[in-house]
Request: fold
Amino acid sequence: MTTPDRPLRGAGEMPVAVLGIGSMGHALAERLLAHDHPVDVWNRSPGRTAALRDASAVAIDTPDDLAGACAAVFLCLADDASTLAVAAPDGRPRQGWDGIVVVNTGTVSPAAQDQLAAIYGSRFVAAPILGAPQAVRSGAATFVVAGPPDAVAALAPVWARFSGTVEAGDDHSRAAALKLLENQMLLSGLSVVAETIRLGRGIGLGDDFLIQMLAASPSVAPSLGNRLPALFDPDHPGWSSAPAAAKDLGLALGMDPTGDFPVTRAARDAYERIVDEGWGELDITAIVELDSGRRPPGTATPVRELLKPTKGS
Ligand SMILES: NC(=O)c1ccc[n+]([C@@H]2O[C@H](COP(=O)([O-])OP(=O)(O)OC[C@H]3O[C@@H](n4cnc5c(N)ncnc54)[C@H](OP(=O)(O)O)[C@@H]3O)[C@@H](O)[C@H]2O)c1
Reply:
């Protein structure tokens, strides 16, 4: 284990660690650093921690290297598998995390939250995030919080940096379910708006007309209205991806595997198709490109065409 050189820091704020410095983990670490929390950061690919190091975060070499004073570790990982691999390799608690509150902010299945709760007991808090990375950075995001009251209360200095918490009691899986139901509405809704645009274009309506129509429509929820500029921008700039959308809808469907949810299933399939068509690196608003025949920026040939079997193969 290496001991990173630790810069001198002001006392008083709760020292924390953020593991998984993707879009969300980066935003979370930035917000806490901006409010004088000492923050350790770790990412599987080390390059992503550079800007945070410049902002006085300490980059650690492995998840076991947390500073002795660290009070809570926040997990911001892609999915169930990566969250469990980082937090509990071989299904066991990390020894270096003794006495530290473990907080999972990622969007994972209820079963994964329950597994972490079984491993970390009274030190585990599920806290999936409602809001985009920019909302986390600005403090406008909300956490759906579930866990033992003492552990949740101990994290008050962190919750105070955000717009609030939605309390889900001590049932960790309920927090996961609430987040997945939110995303099921958002992502299915976005796929419908994208299809409205494709349908409008198909009958010859221009984009200017469609933008005005959708911006004025009471049927477009605010969370979808926010995404209209990115839906019409051919580069689809944004903060979440079609693979993540397909993952979340798959997890939502997995909560009731015997139920029939054709609309959610169709939306999940549409996000999977847009990934197959090569748009997986862009924002979820690339769903509007479904079957467009356009190439994602920087790609010469649609991935689907590259995967087509050639004659004789
Ligand atoms: N973006 C949003 O709008 C949003 C909103 C709410 C909730 N969330 C949730 O927040 C979580 C993080 O999302 P994000 O947007 O930050 O995703 P992201 O930018 O794709 O980052 C994913 C993170 O997971 C890490 N990771 C992936 N597989 C790993 C593995 N096997 N072992 C170790 N680390 C691994 C990545 O490390 P590398 O850099 O090494 O690949 C990266 O740090 C997800 O659960 C997502 O659903 C996202």
Q: What stands out?
A: The radius of gyration is 21 Å. The pocket of NAP is lined by residues 20-25, 43-45, 48, 76-78, 82, 85-86, 106-107, 129, 132-133, 239-240, 244 (CB under 6 Å).
